[in-house]
Amino acid sequence: MELGFDVIALLMAVAFVAGVIDAIAGGGGLLTIPALMAAGVPPVQAIATNKLQSSFGTASAVVAFARKGRIDFRRFAKPAIGAFVGSALGAWTLQRIDPTFLAGLIPVLLILMVVYFTVAPKASEEDRHSRFGAGALVGMAAAIGFYDGFFGPGTGSFLTTALVALFGMGLVSATAHTKFLNLSSNVAALITLVIGGHVLWLLGLLMAVSSIAGAQVGAHLAVRIGSRVIRPLLVVMALALTVKLLSEPGNPLRQMVLG
Question: Nearest-CA neighbor of 30 among 122, 102, 109?
Fold first, then answer.
């Protein structure tokens, strides 16, 4: 499909902001996926193209955190494999869902994400005793990985919250390891969706450039400001984009409610 230069420039700007947000609080896909769909990209292609650009951004954040010595790659190798397998299964499932159904489901998922971001408790900055063992960590990563392959937005926040609440990690440490797990799930979903032929390569790569820059900025800000500023902005933007999607006359959810 063809998009105008102004639309591409706007999507690149959204990708930059999403990269910053994703590195700090997770949930950057709450901006990029609805923005892609609002630009006329079909749901499955929007999710696939978002995986391309977000994979680069997440990889950039992983590099930034690794340079600061924040990631224990040895401990999180098996959870990363679990996230990879779960995400591949989620992306496989996505390609077998009716696109019309998916177009109606995405606004519902976005609203659920907004509710989650609004009521989620604040995370501690200090490491504590883990409530569960290594096996549970792998299972958690696989389950959230499945969601990431199927849809994606909010995955980073889910992972960070689980690492803090269930596995006793401090906020900064949890954020850093979330990027590593998220990179594994992003790559798995991307490979699966590339095989399915759903990625818009040029648009995805252009957005990836912006996402990389945003992720570098966000990774440096994460240690300083955490998510206290980003989450309110994320909620407002997600609500605005949900309204935009539901304003489309052809949206099946809108037709069902009005019909």
Answer: 109
The percentage of residues in the chain with a pLDDT greater than 70, rounded to a whole number, is: 84
Nearest to residue 208, comparing CAs of 59, 85, 21? 59
Determine the Cα–Cα distance for residues 19 and 10; give it in Å rounded to an integer: 14
Q: Is-contact 124 171, C-beta < 8 A? A: yes
Nearest partner of 240 among 109, 150, 114, 120, judged by Cα = 114
Number of domains in the chain: 1
Query: How far are the Cα atoms of 21, 27, 104, 164, 239 from residue 60, in angstroms, in the given order?
Result: 13, 16, 32, 23, 28
Mean pLDDT, residues 190-200: 94
Amino acid identity, residue 163? Answer: L
- The angle subtended at Cα 27 by Cα 80 and Cα 214, nearest 5°, is 90
Cα 139 to Cα 96: distance, rounded to the nearest angstrom: 24
45 three-class SS: helix
- How far is residue 216 CA from its own chain's centroid? 16
Question: Which tokens belong to 163?
Answer: 């690492």
Rounded to whole angstroms, how far apart are CA atoms 15 and 7? 12
For Cα atoms 145, 234, 125, give the angle at the middle one, nearest 5 degrees: 70
The pLDDT value given to residue 135: 92
List the domain range (segments joined by +) for residue 42: 5-258
Please give the structure tokens belonging to residue 89: 């299964």
Report d(CA 153, CA 157) in Å as an integer: 9
Q: What is the dihedral of CA 188, 189, 193, 199, to 10 degrees?
A: -110
What band does 225 get if pLDDT is binned at 50, 70 and 90? low
Contact 200, 1 (CB under 8 A): yes
